[in-house]
Each structure stands twice: as C-alpha cells, then as structure tokens.
Amino acid sequence: MLGAGLALALCALQLCPAALGGSNPQLLVERSGSRRLSKVGGFSWENCGDRRDPVVLQSLSVAPDPISIPGSLRVSAAVSSGKAMASPLKAVLVVEKALGDLWIQLPCIDQLGSCTYNDVCTILDNLIPPGTTCPEPLLTYGIPCHCPFKAGSYSLPASDFVLPDVELPAWMTNGNYRVRAAVSNDGEELGCIKLAFSLQSQ
Fold first, then answer.
1. Total Cβ atoms within 10 A of residue 44
2. What residues have CB less than 8 Å from 6, skipping those under 6 apart?
3. Rounded to an integer, what distance in angstroms lies between the CA atom of residue 118 and that of residue 129?
4. CA–CA distance from 193 to each of 8, 83, 92, 158, 178 (Å)?
5. H helices within the chain, ranges in order?
6. 3-state secondary structure string across 47-102
7. Interhelix angle for 120-127 vs 2-12, to 10°?
8. What is the Cα–Cα distance from 147 to 132, expressed in whole angstroms?
C-alpha cells in the first residue's frame, strides 16, 4: 500500500489550476509555456478517513522544508492495512488552491488536478512493468510495488531520493495548495489522506 501511496503523491503534486463552474469563483487557465518548479514547502499531512477505514498512514516525514528542485529529498513513512487490497483501486483526488481567504477546487485537465483514477494498480504497472524488480529502496525494505497488497504494516525508513528539474505548465502559479486523496475498492473506502504544501516556480 505504501507503493500505491507514493504513486498517489506523485499525482497529487502535479496540480492544475483552472476554471470552476457554478457559484464558485473562477481561475482562468493559460495552457501554453512552462515554468521550472524551484521549491516545495510548508508540507503537512493528516488522515481524513472514517475510523473504520482499514488503511491508515501512521507516519510521514519529508525533509528538508522547503524542498529545493533539483535537489535531494529524504522521506520516511509507515502505513498499516487491516485488509488485503486488489485491483481495481480507485483513487479520487480533490486539489484546491488558496485565493485570498477562499479555497478554489481545481478541475482535472490532462489527468492532472482534481482527477479520478479508476485503478491505481494500472498506474503502478505503467510506472514499473509487471515482472520487473521493485526499485530501491522499496526492494530493500520489502515494500510491494504491484497489486495486490497484503494486509499488514509497511515501513520505509528515512531514505534519500534525487529530484530532477521539473517543468510546470505556465498556468501553475506560486501559491498554497491542499489535496485530499481517497482510495476505494468496489465502493468501499479504504483510506484517505490530506496533504498541504506551497509551490514556488520560476
């Protein structure tokens, strides 16, 4: 499940500001050009699921704060799951950006933003083809990177990652963001986490 959580985090960090319909305020989108992401800071997290949810994020640490890009990142995490999880694992992301005192929900554009991913297992298979060895440090610590995920506890001790340059769409502006990610199977919610962070681009 920790592998699935890392995949969700990657999706969540590629945010998409855009226009909302209805009675909510709107943000206009300029989809041409790009900017280089330089810093991610103010990172925080919390579980947001029902107490009966079988999957709980026990701990998550990300350092340094702010994270410089390109640069190095140290992550540690622990997840417990009271239930085995198999495909399809549906993930629903709600991404919001602060606009003054308001939080504006951003729509899904090009699979980025407030998107629904019908099967995280397929995303993992695309990132790491089935039959290949799980990458480090998942391999060293016995963390699976493909569905199904057995019930139990998974832990990633403090591990270092190298972050390359990241190009963002020009309409991804500096600001504060929050993301809610919920994972379910056949309509049953398995777990939910909330992330908050700020982006700075050049």
1. 12
2. none
3. 18
4. 10, 17, 11, 20, 11
5. 2-12, 120-127
6. ECCCCCCCEEEEEEEEECCCEECCEEEEEEEEEEECCCECCCCEEEEEEEEEECCE
7. 90
8. 13
The per-residue pLDDT for range 88-136, each reduced to its tens digit, is: 999 999 999 998 999 999 888 777 789 999 999 999 999 899 999 999 9
Question: For residue 164, what are its two tokens?
Answer: 């390359």
- pLDDT tens across the length of the chain (202 residues): 555 555 555 445 443 322 222 333 333 344 445 677 788 888 999 999 888 899 999 999 999 988 888 889 899 999 999 999 999 999 999 999 998 999 999 888 777 789 999 999 999 999 899 999 999 999 999 999 999 999 999 999 999 988 888 776 655 678 899 999 999 999 999 999 999 999 888 7
Q: Cis omega (within 30 of 0) on the bond before 137?
A: yes
CA 131 to chain centre: 25
pTM of the model: 0.81
Give whole-number Cα distances, 121 to 2, 64, 73, 98, 164, in Å: 12, 30, 25, 31, 25
